[in-house]
Amino acid sequence: MACGATEGTRITFPMAVAGVAPTSPTQTGWTVALTSAEVHLSAARFYTGKVLISRRFDPWSLIISSAWAHPGHYQEGQALGENLSHLDADLLGGEVDWGTATAVTGEYGSMQLTYAGALTLKGTATKGSEHFTFDTGGSLPKAKIEGIKFDQVIGAAKKGRVVVTLNLATLLERVDFDKAGTVDAAGILKFDPTSEAYNGFARGILDTGTYLVEWKETQ
Amino acid sequence: MLLRVVLLLCASHEPDAGVATPGLESVVRAQRASHSASTVTVPQEVVQAAPRTGAGDVLRLVPGLVASQHSGEGKAHQLFLRGFDAVHGQDVELNVAGLPVNEVSHVHALGYADMNWLIPDAVREVRVTEGTYRAAQGDFATAGSVRFELGLEERGITLAATAASYNRYRLFAGFRPFADPETFAALEYTQGEGFGPQRAFGRVSFLSQAVLSVSELRFRAVVGSAVARFNSPGVVRQDASSDFFIANGLFQGGSTSRHQVLLGVEIAGDGKTTIELFGVLSDLRLRNNFTGFLLDSRGDGLEQMHTDALVGAHVDHRRQLTTVLGGPVQVELSLGGRRDGITQSQRAYRESDGAPYRGDIDAHITQSALFGWAEVAWSPARWRLMLGGRADVLGYEVFDALAFINPRFNAVPGATRAAFGVHWGLKAGLERSLGDAWRVFANYGDGFRSPQARSLADGERAPFVNVRGAEIGAAFDRPLIEARAAAFGSSVANDFFFDHSVGTTVSLGASLRGGVSATVIAKPLEGWLISANATVAAARVVGTGALLPYFAPLVGRMDTAYTRRFELARSEAITAKIGLGLTGLGPRPLPFNEFSRPVGLVDVRLSARFRSVEVKVDFQNLLDSRWRDGEFTFVSKWSEGVETSLVPTRHFTAGTPRSVFVTLEVHL
User: Which H helix or E strand runs over B128?
Assistant: First the structure.
């Protein structure tokens, strides 16, 4: 009777998560080799609101001043899409399927990621004569990471998937393993939650530049 | 599509359905001819043909109008007409015996029109002018205008008591002292527990009109008062509901009061002049929470309060100016204005205990509206050409008490704003008589909707929502049948869609609406009355071509009643009536290319009258259809600490299940 359609259409698309391990020394001079990167996620939500700026540290900012990025300005409330399935994965094992998101068509501007539990990194860190086998531990500074940039128009005809990639090198950039705590009896450097190293690790998790969200077309 | 079948069996001493009763006085009242295919007058016999338990049932008499009650028995209905989602009245101008119903700059919704105080027994006729083609149509008449004329059907004293399903009771008392039905007084008290949790209500309403003719003067006075208290059930989230009738959200509901008076005089002579003064005091307290804990962990519930003191007046004059080429030239002119003194507030309240925790709105508004309109009609031979114009001038003064409340920067909180604006509207019509029964029409009109006062900036030229409408149609009028058919269209240059369930306004840009409608009122046999109408309409956003959501593109309604008098011994008689009401709504477009479920309802009335005692049995939703009164798509969050979907999802309000009303009526 009412020929035509209202604005938007309900759609679904698959999601996946991946990790990129460090391949060069961090900003603090450490060479890190990861043996595991366990992530536990509970939700991803997509919003219209665009991120104002979202980028990593730009050396040019030392010459030309600019404001540091901060997430916003989306509005808590209506989501364009969401994936509420739980994910436990080791990001070093390649791309991991993360279920299917239910969504509607529209202009996507940002993503919110929700951790369920910890992001735990294990491996070795070497700088000069110093060498540690480390474990970042299981605590999180904050469960929800808001305002991750995702600029994409998704229409009903588009077939694709969303891949969330965690840049583990970016995540560890601020970590100085010298200031992480003490080595336990098993020879493992476990991050003290009050330490400066943990502070750097936490800021890395909260840094939206750690996350790259991409729409990958499928045939 | 189910059909509402109303069977009405009642006996009457009054002439009805074309059956004349000797020895009774008759009042002859000439009905003004309609000048468009969408002008319909619904007579009282149609009004009384089906169960009318409240304002919503009376509103559904308007061809093509859908009245949804999504928040209990005290809140204004949500109206849909001709492709317009009028929300709570922003696109349908409602008037009761000269008293304006739409409230300007209302805190809940623009043009808020609460009709729940109207006593159905006191509705004498319903005058519908769909479209915006007449100069008399003012603010909020973008889809059309509806005027309810008052009067009691039967002379004498009428007392009625009703017991109904779900512990609902009603007492009614009315009297009409003269042959003229327009002079009467009526009182109605109604209470009930409702068909589900949080639906209890209580309401009392008094309505009275007096008409007195002295020489060339006809005086008229209308007085009314009403008070109501009601609970609201909220909306049901489709994907998280275990019971069709149990919604979410505590502490919802409110209270209303309305006190009104109109004094008028018609002066016959050289033409006709009408002077009317009116005043309305209205109050509303309303609590609603449609989204749960989506925006605030304490709860998204909003408590809104709105008080309006309205005074107004208008003077109308109608006369024949001259004759040109054998055709009379008539002019109709009206000048008038109204002033609304408004106090409004909005606070957020805690879902746990109903205590307010945040103030959002605290404003005082004075809104003044003055208007002047004129129509000139020339009727040579079988033609009638009409040209009219209207000017509305609005002035706003706003005191926003919550502005600038930071004591670090402002010693005195609050900000004042004032705005002013003018709307000019053109009206035109062409009519051609084809023989004695047929007429064809073409009409054009500019309509408008005034803005919300708090949305205006200081010194702003008040922006109106402008509507241009056009229509072609035909009318067939015979003593036993009248029919109308029309094709209509309208464009809105700067449309917006206010989703008041979540409190956001979405600007749509330009929109287009169009459709066809047909209405028939007939008396095919002695004692048998049929009234039927159907409207098909569509509304689209011009920029994207997308359908506008929520209104029903197909609306059908039929009311039919059969009256039969059975003679008994000793000159006694029983008069029985059977009435049938049928309602059908096609699937309504919803956001994201979805559609609601169709609705079909059957109402039945049976009544019998012996001497002065009448018994009525009404069945609403006879087939106990599980239907959705309103369907919406938005986001809500009712579980704290649990991940719930934040993608817009389906919500609905449950329609009334089968209800039985038994009424004992005594006529003295």
Answer: strand B123-130
Distances in Å between the Cα of B362 and the Cα atoms of B255, B299, B351, B384, B635 are 19, 20, 21, 51, 27
- Closest-CA distance, A156 to chain B, in angstroms, reads 11
Output DSSP code: residue B582: E
Looking up tokens 């746990």 gives B352
State yes or no: cis peptide before A73, omega within 30 of 0.
Answer: yes
- Whole-model pTM: value is 0.85
Strand-pair partners of B548:
none
* Predicted pLDDT at B239: 85
What's the rounded Cα separation, in Å, for the pair B271 and B329?
A: 12
DSSP class of residue A194 equals T
pLDDT, tens digit (0-9, with 9 covering 90-100), for B455-488: 777 777 777 888 999 999 999 999 999 999 999 9
Q: What is the ipTM of this complex?
A: 0.76
The minimal CB distance from A4 to the residues B545, B592, B648 is found for B545
**Range with top average pLDDT, A71-85, A139-153, A191-205, B304-318:** B304-318
Residue A177: φ, ψ to 5°? -65, -20
| Closest CA in chain B for residue A42 | B643
Are B295 and A77 in contact (CB < 8 Å)? Answer: yes
Report CA Rg, chain B.
Answer: 25
Which of A7, A87, A154 best probes binding to B when mutated, by most B CB atoms within 10 angstroms? A7
Amino acid code (one letter) for B163: A
The residues spanned by each domain of chain B are: 39-667
Q: Cα(A124)–Cα(A130) distance, rounded to whole angstroms?
A: 10
Do residue B589 and residue A6 have CB atoms under 8 angstroms apart?
yes
- Chain B residue numbers touching A2 (CB-CB < 8 A): 538, 547, 553, 586-589, 595
Q: Please enumerate residues of A whose Cβ is less than 8 A from a Cβ of B.
A: 1-10, 42-43, 45, 76-82, 84, 102-105, 114
Instruction: Count how many residues are written for chain A.
Output: 219
Q: Where are the domains of chain A?
A: 11-50+79-217
Give the other-Cβ count within 10 Å of A175's Cβ: 29
CATH of domain B39-667: 2.40.170.20
* pLDDT confidence of residue B456: 79
Distance to chain B for A47, nearest Cα, Å: 10
Provide the CA A84 distance to its chain's centre, in angstroms: 16
